[in-house]
Amino acid sequence: MDILRETASSRPPVSRKELAVVALLVSGIVLSRLHSYLLFHTLVELSCTAVGLTAFALAWNTRQHLEDGFLRVVGLAIGPSAAIALLHTLSYRGMGVFPDHASDLPTQLWVALRIVQGSTLFAATVPVLSNQPARRIVMASSAVGGLLVALIFLGLFPTSFIEGQGLTPFKVGAEYAVMLVLAAAAVRLWRDRSPRHPMIRTIALGMLASSGLESMAFTLYVDIYGAMNMIGHALALLHALLIYIAVAWVGLTLPQETLYARQLALKNRFQEDAERANEDILRFAEVLAHHLQEPVRQQHVYSQLLARALPDQLSGDARAALDAIQAGALRQRALLRDALRYLSLERSSAQGAWCNGGAALRAALQRMEALVRQTGAVILHRDLPAARIDQDSLSEVFAILIGNALQHRRQDISPVVAVTCAEQGDGLLFSVADNGPGIPEEYRDRIFRVFERLAGPSQSPESTGIGLALARKIIEIADGRIWAENNSQGGTSIHFLLKKA
Questions:
Q1: Does one domain contain both 248 and 362?
Q2: Residues β-bridged to residue 486
Q3: Which structural domain, as residue segments, surrounds residue 235?
């Protein structure tokens, strides 16, 4: 309910532009009186009928959203009222639809319409009646309206207008009775303290006030073409517009805005929960990895001490077990080291920085000097341009890709790795190509996942399967992308696209 109130207060039922359009249309209808009163009356009544039927359609199709009982009754009952208003329009003198009837017929239909409207507005303030199902509300208002129309056309309805004399006491009394009913409804609505948005209460009181003034205007006219009759019809149009505005606002606008507000609130809450959970997971993983490093280090140290303390002539199984312990310790240490690098990468990465590609490659080769010398590899490269990424990150990517190529080298030839770069639109396409065994097509996407390893005859026991995943994360943080392809002459090319500096 709080979200509904906050959303409702964020946007008024009618904007200034909508008010301007309505004022322009109403002014056009009023100016039509300069041509003829019949044209004015027809336009007003057809507008009331159109607005009423539209409001009824909205109320019926959004009845599940019309929690306010007053609006439910008024919106659903306006359909039968619009039908009577249409009959009133067609029966007006000069229309030629009912030539055998005098001016009393449209006046009688108007009285019937006012009775239906007054009773509807009062019933809308009675909780027992306003809480009825929508179908019953429509049936009840239709039954009352249909009975009154039948009495009129059967000649059983009291005379309401006499030519040359004006309104009959019955017509005037009916209007005053409707005014009393509307006053009682206004009092009930004013005293009602049920949860209701203030704007809805204001519009509802506006309906009752416009309808009461309408009845007053229709008790004072003598000529059906006179000024008071014209004012009464203008108030009738205002009454219909207020019903439409209230139903459209509560039935359509508020549910949509409320739904959007709830979705936005849920999105923000889920995002905060996800960020908090992600931070907790990262913190837990970092702490866990940090604390696991010490027992792993001790495992490696004591296995070395044990190997030196034991006799040189150990049995094959004992030596294999000792070597497995040492290799496992090395691998666990490498896993923990790379996991910490992967988890802390996004927070320590400097987004928006730039560096010289050649300097980043030279730094990577300097770190890998021993491995390059050990494998006898040849690293081919030229000057590389500047890219939008920090130097440490790009150097790390080069080290990972070159080291991966050397670890997965072929045993029958010396490894050769070529590092190149070419412009591609507004970006730079870096490539690290080797002459290794290549990567099967089904593994080219998987190699960039965490802990995915392709077994090879020369693979280091410290290989963790995190290296390429780390490279991908670095490139994606820099708003780039990375992928793998096999060379036409054999081997693999790892391409990554970065923005120019």
A1: no
A2: 492
A3: 2-255
Are the C-beta atoms of residues 232 and 217 closer than 8 Å to each other?
yes
- The DSSP code for 500 is B
C-alpha distances (whole Å) from 51 to each of 58, 134, 497 are: 10, 20, 60
Ordered DSSP codes for 282-303: HHHHHHHHHHHHHHHHHHHHHH
Compute, in degrees rounded to 10, the torsion defined by CA atoms 56, 58, 62, 65. -90
| Neighbouring C-beta atoms of residue 119, cutoff 10 Å | 19
Q: Could you report the per-residue pLDDT of 27-61, keeping only the tens digit for each?
A: 887 787 778 778 877 888 888 888 888 888 888 88
Q: Which residue has the higher pLDDT, 422 or 452?
A: 422
Phi, psi values for residue 380, rounded to 5°: -100, 130
Residues 6+ apart with CB under 8 A from 462: 330, 331, 333, 334
Dihedral sign of CA atoms 424, 427, 430, 431 in order: negative
pLDDT tens digits along 101-145:
777 898 899 899 889 988 888 888 888 888 888 889 889 999 999
Domain's final residue, options 255, 275, 292: 255
CB contact at 8 A, 367 and 481: no
Q: Enumerate residues 6+ apart whose C-beta is below 8 A from 192.
A: 125
Give CA–CA dist 476/267, Å, rounded: 24
- Look at residue 311 and tell me if it is in a domain: no
Domain presence at residue 296: no
Residue 111, domain CATH: 1.20.1070
Looking at per-residue confidence, does 379 or 228 come out higher?
Answer: 379
Query: Which of 109, 119, 60, 115 lies closest to 85 in space, CA to CA?
Result: 109
Q: What gap in Å lies between CA 469 and CA 346, rounded to an integer?
A: 13
SS3 479: coil
In this prediction, residues 240-254 reach a mean pLDDT of 75
Q: Which 3 state secondary structure label does DSSP give 453?
A: coil
Q: Whole-angstrom Cα distance, residue 19 to residue 25?
A: 10
> Alpha carbon 387 to chain centroid distance?
37
Residue length of the chain? 501
- The whole-model pTM stands at 0.50
Q: How many structural domains are present in the chain?
A: 2
Query: How far apart are the C-alpha atoms of 199 and 13, rounded to whole Å?
Result: 8
What single DSSP character describes residue 36? -
| 370 within domain boundaries | yes
Query: H-helix or E-strand containing 431?
Result: strand 427-434
